[in-house]
UniProtKB/TrEMBL annotation:
InterPro entries to which the protein is assigned, alphabetical: ARM-like, ARM-type_fold, EVH1_PP4R3, P4R3-like_central_dom, PH-like_dom_sf, PP4R3-like
Pfam families: EVH1_PP4R3, PP4R3
Organism per entry: Paramormyrops kingsleyae
Domain of life: Eukaryota
Region (Disordered): 766-793
Protein name: Serine/threonine-protein phosphatase 4 regulatory subunit 3
An annotated Gene Ontology molecular function: protein phosphatase activator activity
Signal sequence annotation: none
Similarity remark: Belongs to the SMEK family.
Biased composition (Acidic residues): 766-778
Length: 793
């Protein structure tokens, strides 16, 4: 049987002063040759790997806290902690540490934490200890001065802590607090405030255990009410005893657990509300207080998880129809606080926590709760759902796909979430924004499990578009049945009364469009099929005429995202339905106003020009040029027209363009099919993008023959030989076409002959007038036409 005495968790303190769980294992001590000393070793209980190997340094300060914790620092800003399952194991290792350092095991700290000057150290070592004044009413000022003077010196701080602990000084001070409060002795109360605050800064676990005990903690809070810097004392005790009420929605049978919950709440209140803000003193002087709260929370969550009866009763009452509304409201709020409480846990502990809730049926319970009429209950259930989605979206996706096989679409969990988003009554749609973020997380392929066959992505997206997308898009489709946004939102099966197309409705439509835009970017064919089959883009562009500019921009952004994909299926859909028309109308209606709408529309047309989206460019010019030709404050539309004319020129002169393709490509064409493929490649190549001396991109690997696999040198020599034969054939073809070509043919022939002389790179610039002039001036250098003709004979 495993020795549970030595079972520990290893923690390290991160930069945010939070403890990170490094794993669970079993601790031992022994001599390590490599470290040349006795060391602490922790091996993982799962695979036996080494979690910790730490030499017990004679000068390291080890602290024992709460009977089951040992904390120490190995380097600057690197703190370690061992949390033991049993007190006996902690005592055994603590004795070993004290044995190595030559310390008495009864102490809770073995060394001083910070070095001091040699004089201070000598003086402190020569003094036997710190003697506290008698705990009397007329000596409180002296005690306060002693505490204040000891805080700057770590060694004096340690001696003060030992003196306070050994003499039971805290309980004596709290007795004086009752006397001062009864006598209304404000001066004494102010001194007690400074003393108790100073004891907190001693950062010692043994003192915290006394102050946070059931009999002392309220008196400690009472001392901290009388801040001398405030005109009136605070009323913290009144709040904790009268205002803050502990509601036991499910009976807790374990008295230790109940006491731990009370203690943690009060200590957290002291840290957050009673003590001065961290900027008043160094935060590391309260590190032990942070650790005390942290480990208390870990212990509480663990104890509740282990109580199966408690969780079983909780979920049974949540889903029981006989549970009254007030009781269910308390149960949901408890579960919400329980989930929020778990956020302080480390990943391993949080993983176990949510697995336990999942096994207990938290998702079916949430589905029942979300279907209830109480808005407060639904709001709390939404918060719980957000914790689950943020923790493990795959778990939620798996549940909703399984339930779709048994339930109708209307009661699916994810559809309930969508309907709550649509029906949010908050004027600012705070809840809808939160729910939209959760939906976005669920449909994001980036956080779906990357398995070999990627089944989660395929299965869930197919499920979502089949069972849920129609619910999400219902408000959009209901509000765009006409050429202008409807004045009434038609969702009668969701809302009891229609809502006007006001600012709130427009915000909702903007949220839906934002999610659809995300889907366009990440969902490829699923959203493509839905948009084309349901004619979604045309309905979205109806919102371009909305009186709300942000909604019109959302619809424009949706179209811009589609165009940015450069997908010909989308392009044909846009052209077939003339979907640029509402965009052009909105642009013209905007007039000369220089605003976001103006810039966004111009940017979209500029994208068509720069990226040379040929089909959409031709569609825009052929159908909307008359409306856009007078716009000259930007060159976008004239540039778009120029692109269009260049395309038409290539289409009207296929022979010329074919010859350009031939001259640009110095590969030997073996058949007509190869020639057609290369002409197509030339049509798709922008002349402006080619630089001087740059050759056309070689054909794809599909066009390569077996000869291309030969040795590179032999391949190069064969290509040169083929090119020589090819150039003579091209010369005769040029003579035949001479009388039908423009001046650019002369330039091409001249460049071709130059190529024969050894120039490999050949680029044609038919519109370059400067080359024509240069060619005229250098006639003597070029061979006459008759000589050129003889080349082909």
């Amino acid at each position: 049987m495993t020795d549970t005495r030595r079972r520990v968790k290893v923690y390290t303190l991160n930069e945010e002063r939070q403890w990170d769980d490094r794993g669970t294992g079993h601790v031992s001590s022994g001599y390590v040759d490599r470290l040349k000393g006795t060391s602490l070793l922790v091996r993982a209980e799962s695979d036996g790997s080494l979690l910790l190997e730490s030499k017990i340094n004679p000068n390291t300060a080890y602290q024992k806290q709460q009977d089951t914790l040992i904390v120490w620092s190995e380097a600057e800003n690197y703190d370690l902690a061992l949390s033991f399952q049993e007190k006996a194991g902690c005592d055994e290792i603590w004795e070993k540490i004290c044995q190595v350092q030559g310390k008495d095991p009864s102490v809770d700290i073995t060394q001083d934490l910070v070095d001091e000057s040699e004089e201070e150290r000598f003086e402190d070592m020569s003094s036997p200890g710190l003697e506290l004044p008698p705990c009397e009413l007329n000596r409180l000022e002296e005690v306060a001065e002693l505490v204040a003077s000891s805080l700057p010196s770590p060694l004096r701080r340690e001696k003060l802590a030992l003196a306070v602990e050994n003499e039971g000084y805290i309980k004596k001070l709290l007795e004086l607090f009752h006397v001062c409060e009864d006598l209304e002795n404000h001066e004494g109360l102010h001194h007690l405030y400074e003393i108790i605050k100073g004891i907190f800064l001693l950062n010692r676990t043994a003192l915290f255990e006394v102050m946070f005990s059931e009999e002392c903690i309220m008196d400690v809070i009472g001392c901290l009410e009388f801040d001398p810097s405030l005109p009136q004392p605070r009323r913290h005790r009144e709040f904790l005893t009268k205002t803050a009420k502990f509601k036991e929605v499910i009976p807790i049978s374990d008295p230790e657990l109940k006491q731990k919950i009370h203690q943690t709440y009060r200590v957290q209140y002291i840290q957050d509300m009673v003590l001065p803000t961290p900027s008043v003193f160094e935060e590391n002087m309260l590190s032990t207080l942070h650790s005390f709260i942290f480990f208390n929370k870990v212990e509480i969550v663990g104890m509740l998880q282990d109580d199966e009866k408690f969780l079983t009763d909780l979920f049974a009452q949540l889903t029981d129809e006989a549970t009254d509304d007030d009781k269910r409201h308390e149960l949901v709020n408890f579960l919400k606080e329980f989930c929020a409480f778990s956020q302080t846990l480390q990943p391993q502990n949080r993983d176990a926590f949510f697995k336990t809730l999942s096994n207990m049926g938290i998702l079916p319970a949430l589905e029942v709760i979300l279907g209830m009429d109480d808005p407060q209950v639904r709001s709390a259930a939404t918060d719980i759902f957000s914790y689950l989605v943020e923790y493990n979206p795959s778990m939620v996706r798996e549940f909703v796909m399984q339930e779709s096989q048994q339930n109708d679409d209307d009661i699916l969990l994810i559809n309930l979430i969508i309907e709550h988003m649509i029906c949010d009554t908050d004027p600012e749609l705070g809840g809808a924004v939160q729910l939209m973020g959760l939906l976005r997380t669920l449909v994001d392929p980036e956080n779906m499990l990357a398995t070999a066959n990627k089944t989660e992505k395929t299965e869930f997206l197919s499920f979502f578009y089949k069972h849920c997308m129609h619910v999400l898009s219902a408000p959009l489709l209901a509000n765009t049945t006409e050429e202008r946004p409807s004045k009434v939102l038609r969702i009668s099966y969701i809302l009891s009364t229609p809502r006007p197309d006001d600012f709130q409705t427009s915000q909702l439509l903007a949220l839906i469009l934002e999610l659809l835009t995300f889907c366009v970017e990440h969902h490829t064919y699923h959203i493509k099929n839905y948009i084309i089959n349901k004619d979604i883009l045309r309905r979205v562009l109806v919102l371009m005429s909305s009186c709300h500019a942000f909604l019109a921009l959302c619809s424009l952004r949706f179209m811009r995202k589609i165009i940015g994909l450069k997908d010909e299926f989308y392009n044909r859909y846009i052209m077939r339905n003339f979907l640029f028309e509402p965009v052009v109308k909105a642009f013209l209606s905007n007039g000369s106003r220089y605003n976001l709408m103006n810039s966004a529309i111009i940017e979209m047309f500029e994208y068509l020009r720069v990226e040379d989206v040929k089909s959409l460019t031709a569609h825009v010019i052929e159908n909307y040029w008359k409306a856009l030709e007078d716009i000259d404050y930007v060159q976008t539309f004239k540039g778009l027209k120029l692109r269009y004319e260049q395309q038409r020129e290539r289409q009207d002169n296929p022979k010329l363009d074919s010859m350009r393709s031939i001259l640009r490509n110095h590969r030997y064409r073996r058949d007509a099919r190869t020639l057609e493929d290369e002409e197509e490649m030339w049509f798709n190549t922008d002349e402006d993008d080619l630089e001087d001396g740059e050759a056309i991109v070689p054909p794809s690997d599909k066009m390569k023959s077996d000869d291309d696999l030969m040795d590179p040198i032999s391949k190069f020599m064969e290509r040169r030989k083929c090119m020589s034969n090819k150039l003579f054939l091209l010369s005769s073809r040029v003579v035949c076409l001479y009388y039908y070509m423009s001046v650019c043919v002369h330039v091409c022939v001249a460049k071709m002959c130059s190529y024969c002389s050894g120039i490999v790179g050949l680029v044609d610039y038919p519109d370059d007038d400067e080359e024509e002039d240069e060619d005229t001036e250098n006639k003597e250098e070029s061979p006459p036409l008759s000589k050129k003709s003889k080349l082909s004979s």
